[in-house]
Write a structure and sequence with these properties.
Layout: H1 3-8, H2 18-36, H3 42-52, E1 55-56, E2 60-62, E3 66-68, E4 74-76, E5 80-82, E6 86-89, E7 94-96, E8 101-102, E9 107-109, E10 111-112, H4 117-120, E11 137-138, E12 141-143, E13 148-149, E14 154-155, E15 160-161, E16 166-167, E17 172-173, E18 181-184, E19 189-193
Parallel strand pairs: 1-4, 2-5, 3-6, 4-7, 5-8, 6-9, 7-12, 8-13, 9-14, 12-15, 13-16, 14-17, 16-18
Antiparallel strand pairs: 10-11, 18-19
Family: Belongs to the transferase hexapeptide repeat family.
Domain Maltose/galactoside acetyltransferase: 4-58
Function: Acetyltransferase implicated in the O-acetylation of Nod factors.
Length: 194
Amino acid sequence: MSELKKCLNEKDFNSSVPELLEIIAQGRRLVQEYNQVPATNSDLKQRILKNLLGELGHNVHIDTPFYCDYGRHIFIGNHVIIGMNCTFVDNNHIRIGDYTMIAPDVKLYTATHPLAAAERIRSDWDDRNSGNFYHTSAHPIAIGKKAWIGGGVTILPGVTIGDECVIGAGSVVNKDIPPGSLAAGNPCKVIRKL
């Protein structure tokens, strides 16, 4: 199984293999181009996003600067706004539903590592090896339709946020949030139904 398939199947993978390094290099090149385009040149911005992202809906606005790893693992619905200085670590899929608003400084992280150092650090690695000295896996993130993700929110690997949720500013979301919820805090918890 290729390292990309391992990554998308939520298995331990090596992000330093040529196949993935090429995808990352292409993604980062397009992100750099996107971030340099004047805000008034919306046609060029849209063309770059179509080449960068896995899916780009109608009427999507991504403010700059914007950062991601692969780009092609990000799927955005229609009528979506993403504020400035957002970072999407899209080793695995990130899906964003229609009419969703994402405030500035939001971070979506699909990649993770084992907590215990003995499990995180590869026992078979030394300076002569190619590849990472650590174990990595990646788990998809999904944000439903008509959601509002407040400023400075961090969404961790494997989280699903349901339709019509509001996530309070500064929250760290480490568990799924059911549809129609107002949730906030670190760790993020449901405060009430909307």
